[in-house]
Design a protein that fits this description.
alpha/beta, TIM Barrel, 2 domains, 37% helix, binds zinc ion
């Protein structure tokens, strides 16, 4: 038997060690915008051109995947043969168009699924799921005769319709809760019933989208469920789970250390719909634009140390516009830190020069604590912006407008009633002349 030369072995180890980071570096980080269109939010009603512009900007900042979910709340089965054009038809038609748009922009296209959430007209009394903690939605129990078949048929219809429209699904991202679940004895443990159902749905998806991957969303999972799921998947479907987007609880900036199926990549589900702090409660940006420069920077730093290789940004529309830029630019390494992102944002959309961009960055960062910002009073809210009405001028480099941030009456304050200091909602329309790319510029609404 030949002995291996120790020096050659050492050289080999060094070279392989050097090669590994290079190989990893070649893999682009997964950066997905989960543009969840539901309950009448911006994505659910966005016109095709509006969505194209927003997604194009998202991609410019670093996003490389697009995801959406068909929320069937208040909807009847649009594939039942009823000639009536219903809410379901309108919502799905628009989602299909958004998928086509995302694909045309070069984004991967993922369909988020919540398997046993069904159409309103499928809620037969004998099919209904048993309610319990975390279990909500229009749910049926997959163990009831005929219910599982109805669920599979629903997804078959969606997969076939997307394929017919030329959409190549890259993944289905399956979530067991919100909406989903059944607490009946036959479904226990739900996480395994969910896994079985998801595998059947994935198998169906592959008949229409042969390369579609299976990803999971860890929203609301317990540590025990992660352990059970990982063991079950390793035994029954090894290598099938491509990634798990682990839940980051509100006001936290990292994921839990939980077991994953072998080979399953660790991703993170990042809620970008709230500012640096989650209280006072506004998770959906209902009171205006949000900015989280400190929270998202800390999140990206922590995720890096936790070997997280992908993020899924939970987004509700254009009011988290700045957070889209922050998360994607930082996670993909396009920008080094939050101030750099904010300066780039000001240059791109406000036409700011270097000096102005720094001021804008300071101004934007203060909105991480929106209830502490002392906004200018009505009548004094204006920005010195020479932009014309030509949308798109800033990003295209043509006729760049020049803007300076509005002057706050004072530095951000730390006291006072929150409702009095929130800027834009309860006063007259601002006399604003800036119209540079305002479709994606929710923050313009604060002036
Ligand atoms: Zn059940």
């Amino acid at each position: 038997m030949r002995r291996t030369n120790p020096l050659a072995l050492l050289l080999l180890l060094i070279l392989s060690g050097l090669a590994r980071p290079a190989a990893r570096a070649a893999e682009a980080p997964i950066c997905e915008i989960y543009a969840a269109g539901h309950f009448g939010n911006w994505y659910e009603v966005a016109g095709v051109n509006e969505m194209r512009r927003v997604l194009a900007e998202a991609k410019a900042w670093g996003f490389n995947r697009y995801g959406d979910w068909f929320d069937a709340i208040d909807c009847v089965d649009l594939f039942s043969g009823d000639p009536q054009y219903s809410l379901a038809n309108a919502l799905w038609d628009l989602k299909r168009t958004h998928f086509q748009t995302a694909q045309s922009l070069g984004l991967a296209t993922d369909l988020v699924i919540t398997p046993n959430h069904v159409y309103r007209d499928q809620l037969k009394p004998e099919w209904l799921a048993k309610r319990g903690p975390r279990i909500q939605g229009q749910l049926i129990c997959p163990h009831q005769p005929g219910a599982r078949e109805a669920i599979l048929k629903n997804y078959q219809n969606l997969f076939a319709d997307l394929a017919k429209a030329g959409v190549n699904l890259t993944a289905i991202n399956s979530a067991p809760y919100d909406y989903g679940g059944c607490a009946c004895d036959q479904c226990k443990p739900w996480i395994i019933t969910f896994a079985q159902l998801t595998l059947d749905i994935h198998k169906l998806a592959r008949t229409y989208h042969p390369k579609v991957e299976l990803h999971f969303i860890g929203w609301w999972w317990t540590a025990e469920e992660h352990k059970h799921f990982a063991e079950w998947m390793d035994e029954h479907a090894p290598g099938t789970a491509v990634s798990m987007a682990l839940h980051i609880p509100y006001d936290q900036t990292g994921v839990a250390d939980v077991p994953l199926p072998k080979g399953c990549r660790k991703h993170a589900f990042v809620q970008i719909g709230y500012p640096d702090q989650s209280t006072p409660r506004d998770f959906y940006a209902k009171t205006g634009p949000v900015a989280a420069p400190r929270r998202l920077a800390a999140t990206v730093t922590n995720l890096s140390t936790q070997s997280v290789t992908g993020v899924m940004a939970y987004s509700e529309g254009i009011f988290d516009d700045l957070n889209k830029a922050l998360l994607s630019a930082l996670f993909t390494g396009r920008q080094k830190n939050s101030p750099d992102v904010l300066r780039a944002y000001a240059r791109r959309y406000f036409g700011a020069d270097d000096a102005q961009a720094g001021k804008w960055a300071d101004w934007l960062a203060a909105w991480g604590k929106p209830y502490s910002v002392d906004a200018p009073p009505p009548g004094r809210r204006s920005i010195t912006c020479q932009a014309t009405a030509r949308t798109g001028a800033a990003a295209s480099g043509n006729s760049r407008p020049t803007c300076s941030p509005p002057t706050r009456r004072s530095a951000p304050v730390t006291s006072g009633p929150p409702s009095a200091s929130r800027a834009p909602t309860n006063s007259g329309p601002p006399k604003r002349r800036c119209s540079a790319r305002c479709t994606g510029l929710a923050l313009c609404a604060t002036f």
